[in-house]
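Researcher: I'd like a candidate sequence for this fold, 146 residues long. If you have to choose between options at a position, lean toward the conservative one.
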């Protein structure tokens, strides 16, 4: 459906492309051991450090009971530990284990390798367009999150 508004059409096209590509990339790290959502939690802990279950639920946009179940599975798999919060005894602090860190590093390496193989098939001028598009997307969407 075209609206005649080039900005609206570009926004719709980008939305579709970004959603599909995000799903494809997330699927590159999901496995029988770790789902895409679980990987996202592990990656958050690797990037941001220890967190409370509430902060993780907010980040993943899930309910606290859903996050509790996810953390229990990750804990049982040895990928995170849960301990008493040092400043608030009512809270739990979730920490990434060394094994969890390896899962994140291996998942990122797998995503990067898959992307490299796809990019390698592009013509040089298309790779340059992708390089510029990545810069623009980073500036517009990542650096100016609201």
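Model: Candidate sequence:
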């Amino acid at each position: 459906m075209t609206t005649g508004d080039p900005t609206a059409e570009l926004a719709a096209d980008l939305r579709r492309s970004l959603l599909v590509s995000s799903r494809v990339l997330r699927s590159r790290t999901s496995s029988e051991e770790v789902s895409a959502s679980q990987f996202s939690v592990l990656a958050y802990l690797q990037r941001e450090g220890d967190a409370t279950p509430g902060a993780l639920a907010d980040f993943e946009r899930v309910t606290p009971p859903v996050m509790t179940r996810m953390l229990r599975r990750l804990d049982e798999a040895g990928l995170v530990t849960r301990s008493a919060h040092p400043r608030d005894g009512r809270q739990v602090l979730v920490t990434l284990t060394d094994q969890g860190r390896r899962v994140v590093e291996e998942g990122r390496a797998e995503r990067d390798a898959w992307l490299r193989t796809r990019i390698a098939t592009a013509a040089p001028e298309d790779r340059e367009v992708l390089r510029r598009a990545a810069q623009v997307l980073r500036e517009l969407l990542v650096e100016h999150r609201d």
